[in-house]
Amino acid sequence: MIAVAIVATAAALAVALWFERARVRAVRQVDQMAASLRDDVGVRSDSMNSALDRLERAAQDRATAPQVDAAEARRYRASLSSITLGVVLVDQEGRRVFDNPYAAAFLAGRHGDAVVGDTVDQLTTEALVSGATAVQEVQLFGPPRKTLHVIANPIVDGDQHLGVVVLIDDVTEQERLDAIRRDFVANISHELRTPIGAISLLAETLADEPDPAVASSLANRLSSEAHRLTGTIDDLLQLSRIEHGADDDFVPVVIQQVIARAVDRVRAAADQRDVEIGVQLPERELVVRGDDLQLTSAIANLVDNGIKYTNAAEGVLSVRARDAGEHIEIVVQDNGIGIPPKDRDRIFERFYRVDRGRSRSSGGTGLGLAIVRHVLVNHGGRISVDSTEGDGTTFTIELPALGGVQDQPEPTLPEASNRPEPHRKPKGGQS
């Protein structure tokens, strides 16, 4: 009986061992099938259930992989389409396989824009042949005038060349800002160095001058240069305060009062140059929300600017205001020398002058129109310029009206400014 039991036990163990080996082989085979669907060779399951679970997950992942790739591709395409940078993808044969809307606008363009497409083709060929980055600047004379940087960079994966990516970057605004910064540094250096040099020279001459009459003349010139330097510094400080100003302290402001104070501020300069200032304002108050000092400074700078550039022989300058619906409109018009078209986009830059010789003789700092622009930015307003060389300039300001749209009576000439308007109506202006 004992022998029979031992044999039976051995047979049972053998059968169990065979089944275990068969189970392990089956688990391994399932693991291999899963590994063929997923890149995780070497992973071993500890049971048939876990192996089958792994195979099921691998099959699901494989089934959804094309959908995931397609979604990823759509995401990349949408990202490239939303950026303000031209992107062109070219394969290893030089064929364009993708271009985002920003680039397509240039590639499909005519006339000047067609130059961009030719440049893209040229740089793509260079990058494919040399395997190195190719760069070129393209000038489009417009209008509007633009400067583009076109960069072709090879796409390399190890030793394999997959094509070229071309970037089209519009650097027009960046170059404009760089030019403004360069001009600002050069101009402020000149504006400060000139009076400082004159003060130094006059002081040295005055120290050794025995003639009282000459000494008095030198002292007057010394005082004039000191005032000029002070004026430049004051304008810089004012511009800095306006640039960093907030609207927290804005209150209702009556435009008629702003214009009256602005005209009074420059009345002496107008009388000195024999310039007539005619003011036309409606009887009903025009009210905006803002800073009284900033608005007065802006109007005064525009009027002062007109006084400096108005022809002395027939010096006339008008200031008008009216309700234009949702906006209050203020117009400052002169019959001066006018602004050349090439200068109109830059007259609101700091220290920029249309006629440097005339500006220097008139004593301006070159900051007046920059102050005007920043005041209007702070108040949500805007300014436009209409000018004809030799015939004058018209600056038109629009400020959001406070209290909605109301009809206004026809403008009348206040008694305080009862100077006749000139018979001739100037068309435009200067800076």
Describe the structure.
The model is unreliable at 1-19 and 404-431 (pLDDT under 50). The protein has 4 domains: 2-79; 83-170, PAS domain (Beta-Lactamase, 2-Layer Sandwich); 174-243, Helix Hairpins; 251-417, Histidine kinase-like ATPase, C-terminal domain (Heat Shock Protein 90), CATH 3.30.565. It is α+β, with helices and mostly antiparallel strands. Helices cover 50% and strands 20% of the residues. The strands form 3 sheets. Strands 2-1-5-4-3 form a 5-stranded antiparallel β-sheet, with helices on both faces. The protein has a 5-stranded mixed β-sheet with strand order 7-9-10-12-11, with helices on one face. The chain is elongated.
Structural features:
alpha+beta, Beta-Lactamase, Helix Hairpins, five-stranded antiparallel beta sheet, 20% strand, disordered C terminus
Outline of the structure:
50% of the residues lie in helices and 20% in strands.
Structural class: alpha+beta
Strand order of the largest sheet: 2-1-5-4-3
CATH topology of the largest domain: Heat Shock Protein 90
Calculate Rg over CA atoms: 39 Å
Q: Report the count of strand segments.
A: 12
Overall CATH architecture of the largest domain? 2-Layer Sandwich
